[in-house]
Amino acid sequence: MADREKLRSDLVALLGADSVAWDPESLAKHSRDSWPLAILRAVHRRPAETPACVVQPRDTESVSRTLRYASEHQVPVVPYGGGSGVCGGILPPEDAVVVDLRKMNRVLEIDERALLVRVQAGALGAELEKTLNEKGFSCGHFPQSIDLSTVGGWVATRSAGQFSTRYGSIEDILAALEVVLPAGTVVRTKPVPRAATGPDLREIFLGSEGTLGIVTEATLRILPKPPSRVLAAFAFPALARGLEAIRQLVQAGWRPPVLRLYDELETARHFSDWAAPETALLLVLSEGPPALTEAEMAACSAACAAERGSALGPAPVEHWLEHRNDVPPLEPFFERGIVVDTIEVAAPWSAIPALYEGVAAGLRAVPGILVASAHSSHSYVTGTNLYFTFAVQTENPDRAEEIYHQCWAAAMEATLAAGGTISHHHGIGRIRRPWMAQEHGLGIGVLRALKAALDPQGIMNPGVLLP
Amino acid sequence: MADREKLRSDLVALLGADSVAWDPESLAKHSRDSWPLAILRAVHRRPAETPACVVQPRDTESVSRTLRYASEHQVPVVPYGGGSGVCGGILPPEDAVVVDLRKMNRVLEIDERALLVRVQAGALGAELEKTLNEKGFSCGHFPQSIDLSTVGGWVATRSAGQFSTRYGSIEDILAALEVVLPAGTVVRTKPVPRAATGPDLREIFLGSEGTLGIVTEATLRILPKPPSRVLAAFAFPALARGLEAIRQLVQAGWRPPVLRLYDELETARHFSDWAAPETALLLVLSEGPPALTEAEMAACSAACAAERGSALGPAPVEHWLEHRNDVPPLEPFFERGIVVDTIEVAAPWSAIPALYEGVAAGLRAVPGILVASAHSSHSYVTGTNLYFTFAVQTENPDRAEEIYHQCWAAAMEATLAAGGTISHHHGIGRIRRPWMAQEHGLGIGVLRALKAALDPQGIMNPGVLLP
Predict the structure, then answer these.
(1) Which of A109, B181, B216, B227 has its CA 20 to 30 Å from the CA of residue A15?
(2) B342 to chain A: which residues are within 8 Å by CB?
(3) What's the mean pLDDT when you consider all of chain A?
(4) For chains A and B, what is the number of CB pairs under 8 angstroms?
(5) Which of B250, B219, B215, B272 is nearest to B111 (CA)?
């Protein structure tokens, strides 16, 4: 406790009293992210530990000072953005400093000629998008968390948005970054369109989940708001038919921003007003120059018809657009003994049938299973993702956590067995860490070497990412 | 010399006599790549040192054994693909082992459903493309060196092809790789379409130029051969007009594989049969589904007309397609006292006018300059590349090397001053190494830490990439 006092007073001396907080509310707020297991534990009156204090820097220099201090004193540091992570990336130990970036939320510069925006890492996605929209631009990056997640969080977790099939994921959108290394060094990369100047420094930090440094600024590629948008939905007699239509479309070179296909269970759950029972619903959204959207939608209609998809018109897509970011709070489920979560994975097209069947079967083997369903929301030439939802009823609240881990283990093992990757866009955090060695094979040694090289004292977000 | 003998006999014992060569022809062939300065030195009777021996492994296990041996005995190792590099990436010291990958050139597997090809690193681009074409596929990656360069070389140097504006560069095409680390460990990544499982291991080795390990296998994204192709050329009253047309097209969402714009000098040099003097010629090639190419070419015509580009029909593009990989041998130039090379750089659109003017002015200030011209061949939403050609006449052969360095320094300094990147796709090698610290700022420390972590003894391709 004496250490905590000293840490707090040192940081106040270093950064000013208004940049350091340790009131119970601040500590509790920064004690976890939106990981369902952390929420479950809170419901069961087993809340997470609270950190020693929360630093709220207003500039990169303050982040640098904080990290230099932490390095010198071997204090664990946990970067905090919007707290929207769902894999347990934030669970600061009692002796940790949380660095909350939310006060660094300014849009610094828009280059309208090169279509680049430079923004501080703590800006919320929705704040940035609003600023861009007012000038006729968009980021084209729409994770479901956009109202809650920060630009820095997107980078640190390798975020993907709902329109990624055309506009790419954060690694395609991030043109440059500023990152503070554990010893306080500030590294800035240049926003060039492409370079062959050694390994790409952006990629070291994309997906590093706070374990290699703190992202303080990002330069993102933006786009003019598209002049036209067309919506269409199609119902297929089976999920496999819809997947085949998507594969044909993307492999022929079409890239509608949204190609979102629900299995029969999710179609019945969310779209029964439009789709017949036992069908799989595909949502298509195309946008861009009218000549492009027209040709693209004609190609979609033909590809869907070839797989016996029947056209349902735009209404299901409009419904989805309106409700796409509604996420019900999890507490009521946990209070009723229902263990729920989502798990997103991905694989090459040739492995997708086995991946779907394997994960669904694994989840359905869990006693008390109520729901095991999936949709595909991000497609590529070589494969697609599957986003599973599970719910399990338990009579015994003491078993909830065990059941939670049981579901995750079933999904992870089945994914690896099918040749898939254990995460498409939520990241690793703590929940997926036990499978990282299997995911990467001997490559895990390269990740460990990188960690040891950049954070030799291991102060950055300990307990996350690497097993 | 005793060391050389021991090294050779040890490697023969380890790999077999038919995998190790040290005849003068083999040593001379592997003593350099296609770096113009190395060619200039050879013309001036100052050939490069020759390595101790050349290993020609037939499998990954042999590469692993070689590297394990080299690590244990601190022997420098230089990986060798097709020898097509133009930046001095290959210049083995006398005590080095060159690992020539050309005998590892098999196409191992084609996944026609996921559109993936798994190929050994020593396959030449043209060999791979021919195999794919026979099955109705293409890699979509066409560097000018395709007849001379290997798949492993593409990865190690961050290659970009002539059709990259639509199909991407090697970092977009590489789905997975196998790489042998300096101590002999074989790391394999999985060919998944996208993952959020920590920093992307592919990106550690893309552009590493043999300094972190040896790439032994690659899985690449392939494409069905496109059903239609349309060609068109346009002549603009000024380079700036043509650049503006390209910028408008890509920022509106169009991606013709080829958008290739020559400045007035290069237009006069290569296309005087079609384009009027003092015009800048744009070559456009669109391919894909007919509905897409039709809409794309209509958009191109409109964007070019808006910038006063006049349509010249397909002939200039056909001419380029036929001759695009013809590169004249450099020896005759050097023998006549003409110092020549090309320098490719890139920048955001907002910096391109200053970059073009700055580099051209810097080159034209070199006494004896004959040619300083450029074209743009790879465009992106946020910017484009500029590919300069220079030629300088000198009466004194002893000054040729100094003049060569003077031209490079002028181009590099002007590029950095304009906010550009010092290499778009040729890489760093030895010629650009002096500017790497300026290119990356404090980020150079991250690259150095990566090198120290993965190659602590510094045996991998010493003298390249990092200053």
Answers:
(1) A109
(2) none
(3) 97
(4) 302
(5) B219
State the residue for tokens 């002999």: B184
Q: Which of A160, A199, A442 sits opposite B206 (nearest CB)?
A: A199
Q: Is the pLDDT of residue A1 over 60?
A: no
- pLDDT of B58 strictly over 70: yes
Does residue B2 surpass a pLDDT of 90? no
CB atoms within 10 A of CB A336: 9
Q: Give the residue-averaged pLDDT of A186-209.
A: 98
| Phi, psi of A65, deg, nearest 5 | -60, -40
Q: Is the pLDDT of residue A35 over 80?
A: yes
Q: Could A194 and B453 be called an inter-chain contact, meaning their C-beta atoms sit closer than 8 Å?
A: no
| Beta carbons of B187 and A223 less than 8 Å apart | no
Of B189, B192, B449, the CB nearest to A347: B192
Residue B198: list chain A partners with CB under 8 A. Answer: 207-209, 428, 436, 440, 447, 465-466
Q: How far apart are CA B256 and CA B245, in angstroms?
A: 13
Interaxial angle between packed helices B239-251 and B290-306, expressed in degrees from 0 to 180 and rounded to the nearest 10: 140
Does the ipTM surpass 0.85?
A: yes
CB contact under 8 A, B253 and A288: yes
Amino acid at B323: H
Say what the pLDDT of residue B310 is. 98
Using CA atoms, how far apart are residues A78 and A92, in angstroms rounded to an integer?
A: 6
For residues B375-390, average pLDDT:
98
B466 touches A at CB < 8 Å: yes
What is the number of residues in chain A?
467
Residues 176-235 (B) with a CB less than 8 A from some CB of A: 181, 185-201, 203-209, 212, 221, 223-224, 226
Average pLDDT of the segment spanning B235-240: 98
Interchain CB distance below 8 Å, B193 and A299: no
Rg (CA), chain A: 23
Min Cα separation A437/chain B (Å):
11
Q: Using DSSP bridges, classify how beta strands A97-100 and A53-55 pair: parallel, antiparallel or unpaired.
A: parallel
Amino acid symbol at A23:
D
Mean pLDDT of B80-98: 98
